[in-house]
User: Which sequence fits this backbone?
């Protein structure tokens, strides 16, 4: 019975990694789409989001069955509960990538990014891609140094988010109402993407240390 349980737990971990890899691809493609006005790439992100939703359903069902059938305690129970929360965060990260892709599709054949803010969105794109890549690494390794790196990426996203908003109210800003709306939404999507990556890192820190406020990971 324990052998079967261990196999199920291993598959659960693999499912979460698969979700994280999907998110990594989604944010990379969505960011490229928004920066290059590539409507085909944007559409591919939108179409692929249902696969991430399906993976979340698989994870949730597996967790419920493990709790009902195995009645886990201690670390095993913490791992299963954390997996439920991690899958929810990953699914939301995928939704945010989809929203970015939808912004690219709406603006096509133009760009959703005012030229005055292109550098900021490029920076947010790079930070989000890095956070997604590190989330995959974290789920594979449970390395607290990687968890700390995700927090640093989120700090960068927060700073860029603040710059984007300040730029909008700057007296020199000349974007159209639609550009202003698109910019505000894009900055918010990227900022929330980082928040959810930090949420995943917090759950892993908790599993490794038993402490949800582990200062070593700056969470």
Assistant:
């Amino acid at each position: 019975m324990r052998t079967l349980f261990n196999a199920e737990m291993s598959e659960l971990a693999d499912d979460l990694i698969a979700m994280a890899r999907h998110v990594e691809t989604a944010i990379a493609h969505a960011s490229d789409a928004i920066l290059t006005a590539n409507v085909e790439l944007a559409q591919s992100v939108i179409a692929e989001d249902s696969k991430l939703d399906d993976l979340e359903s698989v994870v949730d069902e597996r967790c419920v069955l493990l709790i009902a059938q195995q009645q886990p305690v201690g670390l095993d129970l913490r791992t299963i509960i954390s997996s439920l929360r991690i899958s929810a965060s990953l699914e939301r990260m995928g939704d945010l990538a989809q929203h970015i892709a939808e912004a690219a599709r709406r603006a096509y054949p133009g760009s959703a990014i005012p030229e005055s803010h292109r550098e900021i969105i490029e920076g947010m794109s790079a930070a989000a891609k890095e956070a997604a890549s590190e989330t995959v690494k974290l789920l594979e390794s449970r390395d607290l140094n990687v968890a700390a790196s995700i927090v640093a990426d989120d700090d960068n996203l927060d700073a860029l988010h603040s710059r984007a908003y300040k730029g909008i109210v700057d007296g020199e800003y000349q974007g159209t109402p639609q550009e202003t709306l698109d910019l505000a939404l894009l900055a918010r999507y990227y900022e929330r993407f980082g928040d959810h990556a930090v949420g995943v890192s917090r759950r892993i820190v908790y599993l490794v240390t038993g402490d949800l406020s582990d200062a070593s990971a700056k969470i």
In short: The first helix runs from residue 2 to 36. The chain has one domain: 2-217.
